[in-house]
Backbone:
């Protein structure tokens, strides 16, 4: 029996805080019942004043039923003073950077656990370049959003550097946020005015 | 003198919590010195365990200098139990929904102030559909990220419904987050492993 086969047959134990057996059981359940894979995430937002608003992330639908987050998550967003706000929250576009880092990081822990690698540290820095002449309506040649995003991961664990790099790469290749940011997604806007 | 000309010449007062004179002064300053429009936003992230990570949004570069947010903003992200996490934060991809709602909402307040419209209420609901067979690696035909996002705005203020709708539409047309989500952006990933 080759080592590869032995590895494939040995059930992975929980590792990196990832319940690997449950992760594999979940993947198998979705394979058998694809409808379980359909999720709908939601947020609601309320304008307070100026560029300041507050959002709530409370519930989602998935695996065939409604779910309520165990905490009712709330987030603020604002513009800083240099962009004529009061800096009571990050700018909306900064949340994309957090989402990107968090998504690839969660995937790294999952992929490492699935491959039997124990991680000791994963840190990342992410930055996005934007030319505000677009959104300020000053130049039609400049886009409204980021022109480019860069993210750098520092990863350490009980595997050779090349294997650690492959784990990051595999997480990137399966990241939901990376996909949305790089490939875009249709967004429908509806308005009720009155 | 036509009404249009009179409107253009009358300086807008602060409205909706937007310091409209400063907003116009900022736009004019950027018109004269385009380099002021260059901004670089940042976040840093640290894996804690499982799918849980924490990000910080602390500083940015823009208008030719470094800026520190007046609060060191921190955000968690996790997966819920149904996705083999502990639900200690929203999922990373839910932050995209918050960012989208907050970005268009901030723009609505700015555009309304610029057009002399006083708003009484702006609320939105945003949802994203995702089929997890993509990111779970079960189907190569399913993308990793959202298949579609929908956002609905309820807006009220001292203008006719059609004018309120135009304000939302103008904000959407200039939204940085809407642009990134619908058109995508190049993302460079670097890895330091060891």
Residues:
């Amino acid at each position: 029996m080759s080592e590869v086969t032995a590895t494939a047959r040995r059930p992975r134990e929980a590792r990196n805080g990832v319940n690997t057996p449950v992760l594999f059981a979940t993947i198998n359940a979705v394979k058998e019942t694809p409808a379980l894979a359909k999720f709908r995430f939601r947020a609601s937002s309320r304008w307070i004043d100026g560029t300041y608003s507050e959002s709530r992330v409370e519930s989602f639908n998935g695996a065939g039923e409604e779910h309520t987050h165990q905490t009712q998550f709330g987030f603020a967003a604002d513009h800083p003073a240099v962009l004529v706000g009061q800096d009571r929250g990050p700018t909306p576009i900064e949340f994309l950077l957090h989402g990107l880092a968090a998504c690839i990081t969660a995937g790294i822990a999952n992929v490492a656990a699935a491959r039997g690698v124990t991680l000791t540290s994963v840190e990342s820095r992410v930055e996005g370049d934007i030319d505000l002449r677009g959104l300020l309506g000053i130049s039609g040649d400049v886009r409204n959003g980021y022109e480019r995003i860069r993210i750098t991961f520092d990863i350490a664990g009980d595997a050779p550097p090349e294997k650690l790099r492959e784990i990051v790469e595999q997480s990137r290749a399966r990241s939901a946020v990376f996909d949305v940011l790089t490939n875009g997604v249709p967004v429908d806007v509806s308005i009720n005015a009155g």
Q: What stands out?
A: Chain A touches chain B through 134 residues (CB under 8 Å). The CA atoms of residues 37 and 155 of chain A lie 30 Å apart.
